[in-house]
Amino acid sequence: MFKERRASLLRGARRLGCDMVASATPQNLFYTTGFWGDGTVIIDHDGTTLFTSPLEGGRARKHAKDCDVVTSGMGKSLKDMVIEYVVHKGKVCFDDVEMDLQFAIKKELKEKVVFDPDLFYSVRRVKDEEEINNIAQAGRITDKLYDYASSLIRPKVRERELAAELLSRTITSGCDIPSYASTQNSIIVASGPNSAFPHADLTDRRLSHGDVVTIDLVIRFNGYVVDTTRTFAVGKVNNEVKRVYETVKSAQEEGTRLVKPDTVAGEVDKKVRDIINEKRYGKFFIHGTGHGVGLDVHEPPRLRMNGKEVLQKNDVVTVEPGVYMPNKFGIRIEDTILVSKRAKPFTKFPKELLIL
Q1: DSSP 300
Q2: Closest-CA residue to 311 (of 289, 295, 328)
Q3: Which of 15-19, 269-273, 351-355 tops mean pLDDT?
Q4: Are residues 295 and 253 in the same domain?
C-alpha cells in the first residue's frame, strides 16, 4: 500500500522536474508512512525517511511502516536536518508547509525546491480499497450516532448537552473528531433560528416545539473522514419548513444520483441549484453543493458553480444542499458518497423529515 503511494508521488514529482517528494503535513505523513504527527517525510529513489523530534520518536517508530525514522538531537532543529539531507540529493517537491519553514527551505535550497500541495491531493484523491473500508466504517458509526441523536432530541434539551452526548458516543465508538481552524466547535448542533447559520456555533439554547434541529457530524475512523448532516423537527412544524425540507431533499437525492465517473462537478452543482431555484429558494442556498473528503474534511474535487473537475471512479465527495432562511430556520441534508457507476452513500440514515 505505502509502496504504491510513494511510487505514485515520485512519478508526479518527476513530472515537475524533481528527484524527491517531501511533506511536513500530518495528513500526508499518515498517507505515506502510517504515522500522524509532527515531522517531515522525504521520499526518493533510495527509500523513505521520516525526520521527527525526540518527543515524537517513540510513536513514530511504532506506527511508521517501511521507512527509516531519524530523530533530531538536542540543539539541532528538524529543519536543519531536512535541509542537510536533501541539499546534495537533487531537487525536492514539498507540499504546503508553514510559512516560516517554507521561507527557511526556500532560502537554503533556492532553485532546488518546488512547493506544490496539489501533488499530494492528486494522488490521494482516488481512494484505494483500505481507504474506502475505513470511510465505510465511519459511515456505519455515523448512522448509529444519528439513531442515538433521535432518542435525545426533545424540548428543553440544550444544544451543548446534545453535542456533548454525541461527542462522547463518537469517541467511545472508536472514532475521533477533526478540528477546524475556522470554528471553535467540532460538531454542529443548531436549533431554531441558529440553524440558519451553515456553520453555527454551539449555544446554550434549549430546543422547543416547532424547532428544526440541524446536526452536522464529521468523524474520523483510522484517519478517514465521513461528513454527514441531517435536519430533524421538534414537534409540529409549519408548512414553510415542510416545503423547504422537501425541496432540499429532492435536490440532494438528484445530486447524489448524478455523482458518477466522468461527470463534471459543476454540472452536479447546477442541477442541484436548478431544483432549489425552481422553488424560489435559490438566494438562500449560499454555498457549493459538495466537496471531496478523505484525510481532510475538505479536499478536491469540489462540487461548485462552474466547477471544471471531472469526477473519477472512487473519488469520495459530499452532496449537501442547504436552504437558510435568516432569523427563521435552515435545512441541510448531506451524505458522503463513493463515486461509482451507481453512486454509493456511506450513510443510510433516513432522509425523510423526522418529527420527534
Answers
A1: E
A2: 289
A3: 269-273
A4: yes
The dihedral formed by the CA atoms of 74, 92, 109 and 26, expressed in degrees to the nearest 10 = -40
Q: Is the peptide bond before 301 cis (omega within 30 degrees of 0)?
A: yes
CATH of the domain at 151: 3.90.230.10
**Mean confidence (pLDDT) of the chain:** 94
If you average pLDDT over residues 336-345, what whole number do you get? 96
Model pLDDT, residue 121: 94
Q: Let me know: does 194 contact 200? Beta carbons within 8 Å.
A: yes
pLDDT at 182 over 80: no
Give the Cα separation of 6 and 13 in Å (integer): 10
Q: Which three cell numbers stand for residue 336?
A: 458522503
pLDDT tens figures, 150-179: 999 999 999 999 999 999 999 999 999 987
**How do strand 40-44 and strand 20-23 relate by DSSP bridges?**
antiparallel
- Same domain membership, residue 146 and residue 23: no
Q: Per DSSP, what are the bridge partners of residue 332? A: 322
Domain finish residue from 104, 124, 144: 124
Give the chain's domain count.
Answer: 2
Q: 73 pLDDT band (50/70/90 cuts)?
A: confident
Residue position matching grid coordinates 454527514: 228
Does residue 79 sit in the same domain as residue 114? yes
Paired residues of 206 in beta bridges? 158
Same domain, 112 and 151: no
Sheet with strand 299-303: strands edge to edge: 299-303, 290-292, 316-319, 335-338, 344-345
Task: Answer yes or no: do 105 and 234 share one domain.
Answer: no
**In terms of DSSP H, where are the helices of the chain?**
2-15, 26-33, 54-63, 78-86, 99-109, 118-124, 129-152, 159-172, 239-258, 265-278
**Structural domain span for residue 63:** 2-124
**Structure confidence by residue, pLDDT tens digits, 201-215:** 999 999 999 999 999
Shared domain check, 141 and 114 = no
Taking CA atoms, 14 is separated from 31, 42, 66, in Å, by 19, 14, 22
